[in-house]
Amino acid sequence: MQDLIVSLVQTPLFWEDPVANRAMLEEKIAGINKTDVIILPEMFTTSFTNDAAQFAEPMNLNTFKWMKQLSAQTGACIVGSYCVKADGNFYNRLLWMQPDGIFYTYDKRHSFRMSDEHKVYTSGNKQLVVEYKGWKIAPFICYDLRFPVWSRNTENKYDLAIYVANWPSARAHAWQRLLPARAIENIVYVAGVNRIGTDGLQLDYAGDSVLLDFKGVPMIELHSQEKIETATLSKQALLDFRESFPAYLDADGFELRFK
After folding, report:
1. Facing residues of 106 across strands?
2. Number of structural domains, the chain?
3. Domain CATH for 112
4. Which of 77, 108, 117, 229 is catalytic?
5. Is 254 among the domain residues?
6. Active-site residue, selected from the candidate residues 42, 57, 117, 229
7. How would residue 84 be classed by pLDDT, with cut points 50, 70 and 90?
8. pLDDT in tens, 87-133
9. Helix extents (H) in 2-109
10. Of 57, 68, 83, 142, which is the active-site residue?
11. If residue 6 lies in a helix (H) or strand (E), which one and from where to where?
12. Quick one: 118 exposed, middle or buried, by C-beta within 10 A (0-12, 13-18, 19+)?
């Protein structure tokens, strides 16, 4: 069983400045030693903004090309979300970019209506599970964390859940509690990557990025530090625990219905 090396990038972001954010992140990523997956926050090119008309990019443009080049240079997958315009709509779209140029996308399912995100961005209706180096990985975006049915790991379809976020300090208690819940109930590793600092709307972000094992026990805790940390996930340890504690066999079946 192949282990997976995962790096969490917790950083402040420049407000609505894609060029500055890409340059800053490129410099930070250059300092990471050997890793398999590098996880960036939600909307890492702009910070969380509803000004999609100005900042949304077509696919295959600047940020896409930047991620493709950086992934090839580092030999690691680069993961994060940014504003995308496609099919006449705006999306808060996560891009999973692999070193070989293969990529996958996930559009945020749950738009945060308290900030009017649902009025600007079109919600996705497809989950994504990526298979990479013997691992099955499911990425989600911020507010998705509050909806356990969407994250439900039916029939052990994934081994690692990733949540990228711009999750304000005012609701940090929910972030801190829901991430371990997702790990425990789904018997998976969970990586939650949030930003720090203050955005252009004067919202504060405490970070609290974490990497949790399948029991909900922290492997990485970044608190409010501007920092990158890396850890190795053991696939064998995950499989051994699922075998000794097969709670998934008693899970309730269900069917998703979209509004």
Report:
1. 94
2. 1
3. 3.60.110.10
4. 108
5. no
6. 42
7. very high
8. 999 999 999 999 999 999 999 999 999 999 999 999 999 999 999 99
9. 18-30, 52-55, 62-74
10. 142
11. strand 4-10
12. middle
